[in-house]
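Task: complex structure prediction.
Instruction: return structure tokens for all chains below.
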Amino acid sequence: MKKIRVVLSFPPSRVEDPVIYHLIKDHGLMVNILRATIDPGKQGRMVVEMNGEEKEVSGGLNYLEGMEVKVEPLAEEIMHLQERCMNCTACVPHCPTGALDVNRENWFVSYDSSKCVVCLSCIEACPYKAMEIRLQ
Amino acid sequence: MKRTIEEINEKIRSGSVVVLTAEEIIGVVREKGIQKATREVDVVTTGTFSPMCSSGAFFNVKQPKEKMKLGGGWVTLNGVPAYAGLAAADIFLGATALTEKDSRNNNGRPGAFRYGGAHVIEDLVSGKKVLFKGGGYGTDCYPRKEREQWIGFEEMNDATLFNPRNCYQNYNVAVNLSDKTIYTYMGKLKARLGNANYCSAGQLSPLLNDPCYRTIGIGTRVFLSGTEGYVAWQGTQHNPGVPRLENGTPKAAAGTLALVGDLKKMKPKWLRAVSYTGYGVSLSLAVGVPIPILDEEMMKFVSVTDEDLRAPVVDYSAYYPMGEGVAKLAEVTYSELKSGAIEINGTKVPTGCFSSYALALEVAEHLKQLIKNREFLLSQFVSPLPGASVGKEG
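Output:
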């Protein structure tokens, strides 16, 4: 099995095509949409996690190329700035994947970047600006 | 078994005092019982670290050679306006003050509130200089009309932190029943009971360990963000008359304390600016209050646990802002809140907190060490807080 996290940029001409449907149905991929936006110029942008056999993943990527969908690696990551974090736990209920968690013995907040899907929820939730988005 | 504050201070001076934190005492009372624990332990330390918007600082800025009257004029510090309606060199900076340029919530999305009065206070405590700009109308004794200068604590005669209100004795648990995310002083609340936010150190919180204000009163010496501070008065909105449990603790927001201390001696570790997305700027302070174990009743009070403390769950989408709907959706214990989820109307709702229990533990432990090292003596209050007999009547 292979899992990749990528940013998909859709040209305006493809915004009305069911691209994700075909990725799932025809290429057998498990697709988890982490973020999706369509700007006023109808350019679409989506952050997805694709999960499947090596062959399925490369088939999916070929399909996307044929559809003129630009595929780029996810170039953003979330940083937990320890020196700003006061371990208040305000971020914890906002984290959908459990990347941010609290040790209920010593009440320290922990961050596991491998579980983070860069949904950005924690950025707004943290009152101490201890969560930061960084370009890789 | 009774002991006085003077007797406790004698033991502190002689190095024989027995001090435990409000968390440690729970196990001791469970194991040894109230009577034995009262005989053995002299002081129990409490702690809290939490945002409180009702915060600010008075600054007395040293005069330049040609003097200037700020009173009746205007002042900004790093662009954040301070209040200049005092004497020639005194100003007050509120924690929530914002620069004129800040977009607030006016950009069609919740504001980030990255810099405000609390950030100026944090910068100064961290040893940074801030840009002072001031203007006055000029008088015979204060002829200067404008001044612009980088200033830090060295350029101030005094910097006094003042909290009109802090140490809330219990508080609401905030939820959102509406269909959209809302941004409040209790944080970001997701739609349809997406999360529940609370803000108290529970069993470590100062006023929950002295629920009927027997030892905490006007004049009480406290630990305040790295130095000593004092209870100046009852805090604003002090409301001791709310319904209480048998253990004396209130079932909703009740007592508060007005605190004062020397900002110049505070430490950045214990004082942090807060930016609430969509709400504004606030200031988090560390407060620790030592509770003298005068008798068995005080020991009973300080041995309170999160299981014995209850808070109301309130809807911040309609009830809090508009008074519409049910006042109290549920009542939960602090142990339920700290488990990571509470149940409201059959729905499991994940919890988050704004009061740092990790820091509260550190405050209580730090204050314990100060007392053991003879660096902090207990004080007898000068006057009791209003409602100090509330527990006796009920």
